[in-house]
Amino acid sequence: MRSLLLTFAQNLNFSETQLKEILSQPLTEVLNSPQLQQALNSLDTNLLKETLPTAGGVLAKELPPFYNWLKNELGVKRVPDSPDHTTTWVIGFVHNQESLTHLVELHQPVPRPALEASIPRLVGMFEGVEDAQVRQEWQKAIAALCLVLVVAARERDREVVAVR
C-alpha cells in the first residue's frame, strides 16, 4: 500500500493524508470532488495530445510484459490480448471521448489487490521517456486515472463486506 500511496503522492501532488481520505470516499463523491477536478484540469492536454505517439510507443512496448505479469503473477483472469485497447482508451480520454465511469466499468473484474499492486508499475512505464515534462505529464495522467479505479475498487469491496 505504501508504494501505491507514494505513486499517487509523487504524481498527483496530494499528501498521504489527503490520499487516504480520497480513497475512503464513495466513487461519486470523488468524481465530483474539487481535488480530482483540479488534478484532471491541471493536466496539460495539449502536451498529452502532441505526445500521443510517444505514449503509444511506450505502451506498445511495455504493456505486453505488464499484461503477462498481471496474468501470471497476480492471477488476473481477463487481460487484454494486445496494448491496442489501453492505448485507444487513453487516446480517447485525452480527446474527451471516453469517460471515467466507462474506465471503471472496464476494470470491474480486476480484483482490488491486483489493481493496487499494478499501479506503481503501470505509472513507472514512462520512466524511460527522456523529456522530463512529457514523462511527468503522462505519469500524472495515468496516476489520476488509476486513482479513480482504486476508489471504485475499494467502494466495491466495502459494499461486498456490508452485504455479508
What's the layout of helices and strands?
Blueprint: H1 2-12, H2 16-23, H3 27-31, H4 34-41, H5 45-50, H6 52-72, H7 84-94, H8 100-107, H9 112-124, H10 132-163
Helix pairs in contact: 1-10, 6-7, 8-10, 9-10
Describe this structure in words.
There is one protein chain. This protein is mainly α. It has helices at residues 2-12, 16-23, 27-31, 34-41, 45-50, 52-72, 84-94, 100-107, 112-124, 132-163. Helix 6 packs across helix 7 (84-94). The longest helix is centred in the last third of the chain and has 32 residues, at 132-163. It is globular. The chain starts with a helix and ends with a helix. The model has no long low-confidence stretch (mean pLDDT 89).
Q: Tell me the overall shape.
A: globular
Question: Taking all residues together, what is the mean pLDDT?
Answer: 89
Question: What is the C-alpha radius of gyration, as a whole number of Å?
Answer: 15 Å
Give the number of DSSP strands: 0
The count of helical stretches stands at 10
Strand content: under 5%
Span of the ends, CA to CA: 25 Å
Assign a percent range to the helix content: over 70%
Biggest sheet record: none
- Which structural class is indicated by helix and strand composition? mainly alpha
pLDDT < 50 stretches:
none
Key structural traits:
mainly alpha, globular
In short:
By secondary structure, the protein is mainly α. The protein has 10 helices and no strands.
